[in-house]
Amino acid sequence: MAERITPRSEDFNRWYTDLIIQGKLADYSPVKGCMVIRPNGYAIWEKMQQSLDKMFKDTGHVNAYFPIFIPESFMKKEAEHVEGFAPECAIVTRGGGEELEEPLYIRPTSETIIWSMYKKWIMSYRDLPILINQWANVVRWELRTRLFLRTTEFLWQEGHTAHATYEEAEEETKLILEIYRKFAEEYLAIPVLIGRKSESEKFAGALHTYCIEAMMQDKKALQAGTSHNLGQNFAKAFDVKFQDNQGKQQLVWATSWGVSTRLIGALIMSHSDDRGLVLPPKMAANQIVIIPIWRNEAERNRVLEFANTIYSDLKTEFKVVLDDREQYKPGYKFTEWELQGIPLRLEIGPKDVEKNQVVIVPRDGQDKTFFILGDLRNKIREDIVLMQRRLFETARKLREQNTFDITDYKQFQKQIEDPGGFFNAHWCGSLECEEKIKADTKATIRLIPFEQAADNGKCLYCGSNSATRVVFAKAY
Ligand SMILES: [Zn+2]
Asked: Using an 8 Å Cβ cutoff, are 3 and 20 in contact?
């Protein structure tokens, strides 16, 4: 039997790790800072990939693959980029038993190698836009790691697009942000705020970065996806020009955008409970488990026959498991499937066979229902939609109840510690105030929301006039 999962109220971080290890989502690897994603965790990643990949392709993007190695000279071509990434890069200096002439960076992100290729591929306005996405692994040498949230190697997708104008690049940046928002809210059932990062939090080498930010159950923020307008910085660094329709040479405009296996961490911390994982139905590899219950041979035969009929009916439409293992008791199976986060459990005992019914138990703590057989598939269809919606609403309420407007800095210092949460506050725009607040409280500007109330105020820290509200929070 599984060990006890530490309750959230006792230690949120322990709870998170216990759930991942006991739920067999991931494990620590022999290489420090790297994790092994086990089949239960990888199944979630595959669901994420399938949904996102479809959304990218539906909006005209295509997949490609670029090398994991980046020549050092490429990394050094864009000053801000190398400054941002060099400290966390792994570098290969030997290969085939010999010192390499030029060290190779293991990609922390692929802008440089991709733009070196775009130089070859882009000549004229007719070659634009390029809308490429890559599913890949990247390496960032992290000192303090945490399963799924921060690991030295992680999986992600990185989109890299090339455009003729600033406006087109900006439109692309916003289109992708909207895809990320929709994916987070409608598939992961995680409500997100959308907006722009401050200068200090933006991507190294970008004009500006847009992001989606979510609140976890411990009221900390998690950046769940970013979309960058890179301007012409990489086109300048790699001399990528195109001939416009007037015959003039122009620098190309760029975007890049990504989400990673970090989203699995976000999914866990948004919905799960002290019994284990809670998965939104759209993210569950299996949506239903049927558990037959019997005490003797005669009951066993009747129950299994009935359960098999239900199973055959349901599997025409849903991902469903019939757990008819003989070596485990029903109670053990309940606990195990709860730990795995399967959305719906169907229990069938001898009494249910008599009454021609099944017992439906949703994973998120809603009351069980006794469903007399009629159109079971329709009932399941409805239950799945309702559960997906409930998880989103519960997360949205948590965020609403823990978001505060704040004007007084002393008050803010107290409240960010306890009870914590998201704080809407005016900010004058200076890096100094941002850094002082971070040093005092560990809170950072999570984003500058797109939608701003038209009210002028005073900077939370220095009291100067401010026309901009931002969201402060402690973050993962
Ligand atoms: Zn200020």
From this structure: no
